[in-house]
Amino acid sequence: MNPRILLRGLILIAVLAAIAWAFEKTGLSTALDTTWIDKEVRGKGVLGEVLFFAVAALFLSVGLPRQVVSFLGGYAFGFLVGTLLALAATALGCVIAFGYARLLGRAMVRKRFSARIQRIDAFLHENPFSMSLLIRLLPAGSNLLTNLAAGVSSVSAAPFIAGSTLGFIPQTMIFALAGSGVSLDPTLRIGLAMALFVVAGAIGLSLYRKHRHGKVLDESVDRAIGASETDLR
User: Fold this and answer.
1) Is residue 172 within 8 Å of residue 83, measured between CB atoms?
2) Residue 224: pLDDT band by 50, 70, 90 thresholds?
3) Model's pTM, two decimal places?
4) What do you get for the CA distance between the two ends of the chain, in Å?
5) CA–CA distance from 15 to each of 21, 71, 86 (Å)?
6) 38: Cβ contacts below 8 Å, ≥ 6 apart
7) Which residues, 6 or more positions from 186, have their beta carbon under 8 angstroms from its beta carbon?
8) Structural domain of 164
């Protein structure tokens, strides 16, 4: 795996965790009660959960990184509930972007991402569930562009969304753990999240190299994760 991809993921975990830690330790979390999470979501019960889910899904559908939503879910609701809400919002965001591309945005998406659409179509066509799962396990690539390109392609919606949702689980859990207030020492919690990110990324890369069968998802993704020409054989 390209060390830069791994490093970016680890830095993202560390920075988000440091911000949350600073809020808690310095009292900024109470001073910044006008911020959206603290004011509208945390401690609001079911209404806060529903609001977080709806807003997160909307922003995810237009490109907000799912890792950030997962971290905020853990920060707002704890590991378990945060993971479930972030996963559900990520899946709905996938459905919204896919549905927009398929039903309303074909011309725009085809014009802007024609080459990517062809690669996504070829990559997913024979085994859309397993290959969608594979894409989501990779620690690289654009979630939004994948959703849009798949929506315009010939891929069936159900296996794409089901495989994507299953593939979202590892990173959702990792970033929700990093943002949560579970009863672990903060250093241990962040260290565990980083270790799990490395393991999940390595598994995703290994499966990608093993099962892509000569297909290229995206040239920039292949360069980023360090896939070589020998992987195509």
Assistant:
1) yes
2) low
3) 0.76
4) 18
5) 10, 11, 19
6) 29, 30, 32
7) 17, 21
8) 3-232
pLDDT score, position 36:
77
Cβ-in-10-Å burial (0-12, 13-18, 19+) of 181 comes to middle
User: How far apart are the C-alpha atoms of 35 and 19, rounded to whole Å?
Assistant: 14
Most confident of 32-36, 63-67, 186-190: 63-67
Confidence of residue 229 (pLDDT cuts 50, 70, 90): very low
Burial class (CB in 10 A: 0-12, 13-18, 19+), 157: middle
Residue (of 210, 231, 201) closest to 219 by Cα position: 231
Q: Name which of 138-142, 163-167, 215-219 the model is least confident about.
A: 215-219
Name the domain count of the chain.
1
